[in-house]
Specification:
- It holds the Pfam family DUF2087.
- The protein has four helices and two strands, in the order H-H-H-H-E-E.
- The chain is mainly alpha-helical.
């Protein structure tokens, strides 16, 4: 239950991230939420990833990098394909 209370601070009723958390543990919570918008085992183009994230958060390019950096998403070396890793 507390998980949802914390997430509600950062995500509005439409599912968009309204505030980016300052603390890393809360950033990881929001990144985990964003990762759930990608189907496991499905491959996505960079454009597809951008479109999904655009609907959820304003700074989608930085958040895409964060998803990769924190291993919520993986990508091919050439950056053409992305997939959910967690």
């Amino acid at each position: 239950m507390e998980h949802n209370i914390t997430l509600d601070k950062y995500v509005d009723s439409r599912g968009r991230v309204k505030i980016w958390p300052g603390k890393e543990k809360n950033r990881l919570l929001v990144l985990s939420y964003l990762a759930t918008k990608f189907e496991p085992e499905k491959k996505y183009s960079e454009q597809d990833v951008n479109l999904i994230l655009m609907g959820l958060i304003d700074n989608y390019v930085t958040r895409r990098r964060d998803l990769i950096e924190y291993n919520f998403l993986n990508r091919t070396d050439d950056g053409r394909l992305y997939w959910r890793s967690k």
